[in-house]
Specification:
The protein is mostly helical. It has helices spanning 3-25, 30-52, 63-77, 85-113, 118-139, 145-148, 150-168, 174-193. It is a multi-pass membrane protein.
Length: 201
C-alpha cells in the first residue's frame, strides 16, 4: 500500500465517522445515518472526478464502500453515539479535521496527475476535502462548516498549495506526505482550539 493509499484510507475512515456522528446527532434513522456517512466519505471525490472527466473510482472499486460500511458498523457496535454531547462534538472535530487534511492531499495529487496549474491543484484539493461535508450539511439543514469556521477551508487551501510547491521542488515522497498530513492536522486542531479566524471585512 502506497502512502497515498494509506492517506486515502485514513481520510475515508475519518469522514465516514464524522458523517455517522452527524447522523446520530440529528437523530436520523439507520438509512439516514448511512447516507450521511457515505456522502461525507465519497462526495468530495465524486465531485472532483466529475470535474476532471474521469469515472469515479467508487463506481469501479469497492474499497471506499467497504471502509465506510466497516467504519459505520464499528461506530454502531461501540455505541459511539451514546457518549455525552461534548465528547461527541470533540470526536466529530477530530475525525472531520483528519478527513479534511487527508482528502486535501489526495485531491491535490489527482490534480497533479492531470498536470494542472496551482489554481487547479488547490481547487481540486479543496473540493475533495470539503465537497462531501457540504452535501451532507445541506441535506441535514446545517450551514456548511466552510461557511461557519473561517480557518476550516483555509487549512485545505494551505495544504493543497504545499502539495503543489513540494511537487515543483520534487520533494513529494511518502515521508513528506505523512509529515504534511500530520502538520495539516495539527494546524487545523490548533486553529480550532484557539478559535483562530480570518480577518473580517
Amino acid at each position: 500500500m502506497t502512502a497515498t493509499d494509506m492517506i486515502h484510507l485514513i481520510g475515508t475512515i475519518a469522514f465516514a465517522l464524522s458523517g455517522y456522528l452527524v447522523g446520530a446527532r440529528k437523530r436520523l434513522d439507520m438509512l439516514g445515518v448511512w447516507i450521511c456517512a457515505l456522502l461525507t466519505a465519497i462526495g468530495g471525490g465524486l465531485i472532483r472526478d466529475a470535474l476532471v472527466g474521469r469515472m469515479p473510482l467508487v463506481f469501479t472499486e469497492y474499497g471506499a464502500l467497504a471502509i465506510t460500511v466497516l467504519t459505520v458498523l464499528a461506530a454502531w457496535l461501540f455505541k459511539v453515539q451514546n457518549n455525552q454531547g461534548r465528547v461527541l462534538a470533540e470526536a466529530f472535530v477530530w475525525a472531520d479535521s483528519l478527513g479534511l487534511v487527508a482528502f486535501t492531499i489526495t485531491g491535490a495529487q489527482v490534480a497533479l496527475m492531470y498536470d494542472l496549474n496551482v489554481f487547479g491543484v488547490v481547487m481540486l484539493g479543496f473540493i475533495t476535502a470539503v465537497g462531501g461535508g457540504v452535501v451532507r450539511d445541506v441535506l441535514v439543514n446545517d450551514i456548511p462548516m466552510i461557511m461557519r469556521q473561517d480557518f476550516y477551508g483555509t487549512v485545505a487551501v494551505l495544504v493543497a498549495l504545499a502539495v503543489f510547491l513540494l511537487d515543483r521542488w520534487n520533494w513529494v515522497n511518502p515521508l513528506i506526505l505523512n509529515i504534511l498530513l500530520f502538520g495539516g492536522y495539527v494546524l487545523r486542531m490548533w486553529a480550532y482550539k484557539t478559535r483562530l479566524t480570518l480577518p473580517k471585512l
